[in-house]
Structures are given as C-alpha cells and as structure tokens.
Amino acid sequence: DSKATVSVLYWYNTMKVFALLGCLALASAKELKLKIPMRDGFKMSTNIMIPDKGATQKTCILDASTYGHGGSENTAEGMAVSLGDDYCAIMQDMRGSGDSTGEDFTLWHSQGNDTFDTLKWVAEQEWSNGIVYQMGTSADGIGAFMGFTDNPPQLKKQYVNWASVDAHGFPFPGGAYRKGLNDGWLKSTFPTQADRLIAETKANEAPGPWWNDVNVTLGNKCENRDPFPAVLVGAWYDIFQNGNIEAYECYNKRNSNTKLVMEACGHCLLQACPIYLPADAEHATLARLLGADLFAGRQSPSEIKNVTFFVMGAGDEAGLAPAVGAPGNYYTSLEEWPKFNPVKYFFTSKGGAVVEKEATQTSLNYTYDPTHPVPSHGGNNLMIRCGALNQAEQENRPDVLRFTSDELTEDLAITGGLTATLFVSSSAVDTDFTAKLTDVYPSGKSVLLNDGIVRMRWRKGTAFSADPQLITPGQVYEVEIFMWSTSYIFPKGHKWRVSISSSNNPRFEPNPNNGLALSANGPNVTAHNNVFLGGSQASYMTMPVVQKSQLPKVDVKAVIDRWFDERPASWRENIPKMGNGLDNVPHFVNH
C-alpha cells in the first residue's frame, strides 16, 4: 500500500547516506570475487579490492552486509581509497543474503563464527599482513559487534555506525515486541525468509540461551574481549540509540581510547528530522574523520574528546529548522558524560508535574482496548514515521493521561537516561504501560523527545528473568519505564509533558492483555488500568538535569576544516563522498 511504499522509500533514502559513488572505486587494483569457505562448509560471497601499488602485504578493511554487493558494504572500499594504497577492501555478503545464497539468514547468530573464519582465511593470503579493521552501519554494524565475540586475533580496530550490541534488547524493549521495526525490516530485506524469521523471533521473546550468542554485553563478554579501540556512532532518534550507548560502555571496559559520537537523527536522517539535518551532515563527516584517523593511526584534534554529542533544541513551529534564538542545537565534546542531577517530578491528580508530591493518594484510570490502540507518530523508528513529531492528536484521547509541567521560567537542560516510575494496577493479568516525554510549545504543539514501554509480565526486566510473571488484577505494582536517553534544552516559556497510556502501534505490537505467549493466538481482553499518584505510591518522572555550562559548544565546522588541512589531500576529496549514494539495492529500488 502507499504507506508501506513511503516507508521503504524513506529507508532507501536513509541508507543512501552510507554507500559510495562509483568514483570512489580503487583506480588501479586487483579485484577478487570469491566464495570463502566457513567451518560448516557454507561459502561466503566476498569481493576483495587489492591496490596494485603500495605495500606488498596490506592491512584490510572488512564490511560484511545484509544488503548485497554494491550496497552499504562498499564503505570499506571508500575508506581504503581514502587511506591509500597500503589498504585493501573486503566486501562480504552475510550468510543468507545477497550472493551468499540460501534461505538461512541466522539473525546474526552465525556472525561470530563467520567473522572468525573469514579473518583467519584473510590472514593466510600472501597479500595480507594479518591485520584487519572492521566497519559497518546498521545491520552491518550489528554484524560487526557480533563478529568480535569470538575474539579473532586479526581484528585490531572497528568503526561502527548506528547499531546495537544487544540483539534481544532492540526487538523487545521493555519486553514488548517492536513490530514496526522488526516486521518492516525483515519483510523488506529478506522477503522470502521474513515469515520464518519473524516467527522465530516471537517464539523467543524471553531472554535466555537462544539470545546468548547475540548479546555482546552478556556476562563477562565485555571484560573478556580483545582490548582494541573503536569509533562508535549513534543518534538520539536512532532505532539503536540505547544499543550504541551500551556498546560504548562495553568497549570502554577494555579500552579507554574508544570514542562515541551521538548525532541527532541516525536512521531517521532523511525522513522526519529536518530540524537537525544540516547539523547531522557535519557530524557524519566528523565521525568519518575519527574512523579514518583510528584506522590510519593518527591523533585526532584535541577539541574532540571521548564523547561528542549533539545538544538538541527546539525547532520552529513548522518543524523544519531550529527555532531562532532557542538554546541548544549545537555540538559538545567531553571526556565523559556530564554528571546530572536526577530530579524527580511527581505527577498530580490535576495533570501536573511538580517536585513536591501530593500528600493524599489518588489515582487516575483509563480503559485500554487492544483493538483501538494509540497510533504511533514519530520517535526512534525506521519503517514508520520517526523523529520529533507533534503528539497533540495522540494525546487527545480518553486512554491517554497527560502530566504537564508549569511554564518554564528559565531554560532547562537535560542530558542522560530518562525514567518514568509508575505505581499501577490493572483489571487484566497482563498489560502494557507506555510513557512519552514531549516539549510543549507556547502554541500547544507537543513535540516528541523520547518514549518507552513496559510489558507487565516482563516488569522485572528482560535482562534479569527469563520467566514471565503475570500480575494479579487489582494489585498495585511499582514499575520503571526506561525511555532511553537524550540531550536537550527546553527553552524558557515552554513546558514539558509526560503522557501515559498502554499502546503505541505499530511501533509496538499491542498487548492483547490475555497473558499468553507472544506466539500464541488468544482473545483480546479490554483492560481497565490505573496510575496512582501522591502519598506512598506516587508516580513520577526522573529528569537528568544538567547546567548549560556543562555542555560547552564546539565549533565542529571549524574543527573539520582544520582537520582536513592537516591530512592528505585525498581525505578532503574522498571522505565527504563516503555517504552519497546506495544505487544498487534491488529490493529497495524496486519498491
């Protein structure tokens, strides 16, 4: 239908940011087209570009992809071109994708072994010096994260964009199934395998052994990984935002030279992110320069510290550009995340959000009908609308509770994780609770910053329990809704709002409230849900408040200009072109 077509076109346009123009091809190089054997006999389709000039034995740059030869994996060639003739490029189709044919994409379960076997083969070739650097964006980036789990000795550095180290956490945040992303991406990327892959994912909604191979942060994996450095790139509105931040924390346990760049948009770059699009274009060049410096063994400019991130601010009324005079909308770069003050704002019976909770306990209630869910509109999405969109229509429903701050008398800066702590009850044995944080403009426009969800049968956290625990109807439970992270400055004269409900469809598949497993068919049950306020069961929002002085502005454009001046001329010519076109991904183009 038209909506599906628009969604796929959005994704196609977004992915164009990561592929290369033909002009970046290695001008004088030997091209190998091979089928590299894996330990189980499967053969991986691999293209290798080896410059005729330069060192006889070369350092190689690998990108393994789900998008086929000529797609995003060609960034490996673009990086090799930029760095010079001492580097070769390895472009590989992941198992079950592209020319690595077969109905056997494994949802990255085999990627650890496949990367290990590929790098072992590369090191045995006469044109290799035994050193491999790896890069990847999105699905390729997830593969890169899974690739280091077996600690291949040849892997020495990584540059990873917009990916997640937790392959269970991104399809099941808060225990709810992320239908819009999972179903949409699998159907577009693996149309003949999608039904199997979706069913397999749903059958494993619980954390446990099935996920262990693809959860990089499980147990002591972070502490036990080889301590090579990396450049990691995420974004506040990206589908993998939290997984990128977790990756930085994981990598830092073994190497403090790892750097993190947090853009504004991520996968949302060309869909509904116009406020921040010009800034993200600069940020993309900065990230590529960090990656190139890492691979070339160069020291990056002193202004660029360990954590570089965009401090978002309000947009204009049309949502097409930064608001004139609004605070924020610039870059900062710090040695570590700023220390924030976790300020609790308690929800009131009159729909307020205040620092002093009401003495008397009350509750507000609504009816959640799974057949009439709240429609998704914006946020950290891919195949559906994403970004900083107005929630006024979504909030104006009887099944949504709104809690709004007083008008701000001064700018309010926040940077860090966001959590809504709720005391709730339900008439059902299972249900969901959702939370959204928005910036409320003087006009009444309510722009989405972050959202989150908790499925009550997984309320103890999917990282801690593999057993669902149904709730007792009428009993009050304390739950936390983690809404991921942000860096934002609310302007003076605005308000902020937290909206509570029980659905956000199709971002999350609606909970039928029947307590059955996700893969089971069962009846829809209408739930009467309560949120408790004041007294000993006072629901509240925790905001990571910082001072604006903790977020000093960095002139990224000036830094980039000087950066290029101090690097080979080929960098200025080639690195900005590394994100100009994905022209040969058939299933996107055909849509």
Describe what this molecule looks like in 3D.
The protein has 591 residues and is α/β, with parallel strands linked by helices. 22% of the residues lie in helices and 27% in strands. It contains 14 helices and 21 strands. The chain has a 10-stranded mixed beta sheet, with helices on both faces. Strands 11, 12, 13, 15, 18, 20 and 21 form a 7-stranded antiparallel beta sheet that branches. Strands 14-19-16-17 form a 4-stranded antiparallel beta sheet, with no helix packed on it. Helix 3 crosses helix 4, helix 5 packs antiparallel against helix 6 and helix 10 runs parallel beside helix 12. The longest helix has 20 residues. The radius of gyration is 24 Å and the shape is globular. The protein starts with a helix and ends with a helix.
* Through-space gap between termini: 11 Å
**Structural class label:** alpha/beta
Radius of gyration, taken over Cα atoms and rounded to an integer in Å: 24 Å
Strand order of the main beta sheet, please? Answer: 1-2-4-3-5-6-7-8-9-10
Counted by DSSP, the helix tally is 14
Sheet-strand content, in percent, reads 25-35%
Task: Report helical residue fraction.
Answer: 10-25%
- Mean pLDDT, all residues: 90
Largest sheet: 10 strands, mixed
Q: What shape does the CA trace take?
A: globular
Question: Poorly predicted ranges (pLDDT <50, ≥5 residues)?
Answer: 1-24, 580-591
Work out the oligomeric state of the chains in this entry: single chain
Number of strands: 21
